[in-house]
Structures are given as structure tokens and as C-alpha cells.
Design a protein that fits this description.
There is one protein chain. The radius of gyration is 18 Å and the shape is flat. The protein is built from 4 helices and no strands. Helices cover about 80% and strands about 0% of the residues. It has 2 domains: about 1-45; about 50-100. The chain is mainly alpha-helical. Keywords: Membrane, Transmembrane, Transmembrane helix.
């Protein structure tokens, strides 16, 4: 894989990274601002909504990694990718259990 990217490719990569960070940050900022507006600041920490948020983020990460592996030209070990996917799935299940339990 070529390690030097053109200026256009670097800008596109940076724009995609910024979009990913915003996609993750905006729900958290909304959650925090709504909790501050509706209730006390202590409920920000004790809210079960964090479990749902982490479940969504784990799902997004798994989707992005799967997409990146499928698009890459490098040889990827199926065993390590399967192990990574299994760990992510387990964390999503734990997050859902914490949210509903």
C-alpha cells in the first residue's frame, strides 16, 4: 500500500474523520445538555442512557472495521478479524443488558 497520499486524498480522509467524530460527539453532547436541563448534574453520571450510547458506538465501529477490511487491498487474517468481531459483539450485548437490566 502506498504510504504517501495526495493532498486531495488527505483532505478527504481528514473530512471523513471529522464527520465520524461529530457523529459520535453530537449524541453525547445532546444527552449531557438534556440531562442538565431536565434534572440534576448527578443524573448525567448515573443515567442508563450511556449504555445505549456505547452499544450504538460499538455497532458503528464494527461496521466501519468490516467495511475497511472489505475495501483494503492488504491481506488480513480471518482469525484475528473474527476474534475482533466476536469481542465487539460481546460488548454490544453487555451494553444492551446494562441498558435494559
Amino acid at each position: 500500500m502506498n504510504s504517501t497520499l495526495s493532498l486531495k486524498e488527505r483532505k478527504a480522509t481528514f473530512a471523513e474523520l471529522k464527520a465520524e467524530y461529530l457523529f459520535i460527539a453530537i449524541p453525547f453532547l445532546l444527552l449531557i445538555s438534556i440531562k442538565i436541563y431536565i434534572s440534576t448534574w448527578q443524573e448525567i453520571i448515573t443515567s442508563p442512557d450511556w449504555s445505549l450510547a456505547s452499544c450504538l458506538i460499538f455497532g458503528q465501529i464494527t461496521s466501519k472495521v468490516s467495511k475497511a477490511v472489505a475495501c483494503s487491498n492488504t491481506k488480513t487474517s480471518e482469525h484475528f478479524f473474527g476474534w475482533y468481531t466476536a469481542k465487539r459483539f460481546l460488548l454490544v450485548v453487555i451494553s444492551i443488558a446494562a441498558y435494559f437490566g
